[in-house]
Amino acid sequence: MVAMVLTPSLLLPESNPEMTDAAVLIALFAAVFVIVEYGSTYPGLIEFRGAPPFNRVRFATLFVTLTLISIALSSRQEPTVLSRLVLAVGVLLGQSMDFPLSPIRLILWLLPEGTTLSQVHSVRAAVGLAYLTGLVGLTVFAILIRVRGWPSPTGSFNVWINLPTFDPTAGADVVKQLRRDGAVNILLGLLLPYVSPLVAILVARSQGVSMLDSDLTLTWVMSLWAFSTVSLLQRGIAMRRLALMISHKRRRIEAEDGLAEPAFLPA
């Protein structure tokens, strides 16, 4: 966790020492938070703690996204063969996804007046790399679900630990609740790329800040923007997968009970 938070600061030298100090404090806080959460035997704030590799895939997705965008943007200050290659790949990906009504087109349309061509290329590359990593992360998670029988091939799953905010007694049927919550998360994940840029622009303009002020800010904004979408989609898939597991277990129990009933001969 410390390495993930500090990687952008190490790859993108920042002239403001306060941002470097803030990154170190955030890294330490994140590390302590994860240690406490996974060391506790009681429910916390992290979901699916006991159902790997859900959180491992999310962590790897964010880590790779931050690293790739940092390498691409570092070409503006210290160009290398690797940084130029990653930047070129990101620009090509961004151009391929820059079509009408796409999230990339919306972000480019919301850029302030006076944005240079170099900054536009940086934003397009960051978005392209972020979405490529997010799609790969979702694909890997979907494959692991099928291969490993996630969340549990034996059918055992601790809802109390893995879903601390989910109340199975709130509705009539837990399967319907999980399917509904999963569908809501997937819908939010599809809408978030369009809604979050508008909200972020309004907040940034009211505070007089911009993601183009520094490469480090651009890296984190684009990474968290794509990661939030991937997290919601992955959570929706996981909850619907859990609902499927519970329904299959119910059918198996009902079938076993049906076979175990004694046969009565007619009088």
Short synopsis of the structure:
The protein has helices at residues 2-11, 17-39, 54-73, 81-96, 103-110, 117-148, 159-162, 174-207, 215-260. With 267 residues, the chain is an all-alpha fold.
Description:
The protein has helices at residues 2-11, 17-39, 54-73, 81-96, 103-110, 117-148, 159-162, 174-207, 215-260. It is mostly helical and 267 residues long. It has one domain (2-248).
Helix content estimate: over 70%
Strand content: under 5%
Distance between the termini: 72 Å
Number of strands: 0
Would you list the SSEs in sequence order as H and E? HHHHHHHHH
Topology:
Elements: H1 2-11, H2 17-39, H3 54-73, H4 81-96, H5 103-110, H6 117-148, H7 159-162, H8 174-207, H9 215-260
Keywords: Membrane, Transmembrane, Transmembrane helix
Transmembrane segments: 20-36, 56-73, 85-111, 123-145, 186-204, 224-243
What are the key terms here?
267 residues; mainly alpha; 0% strand; elongated; disordered C terminus; transmembrane; membrane
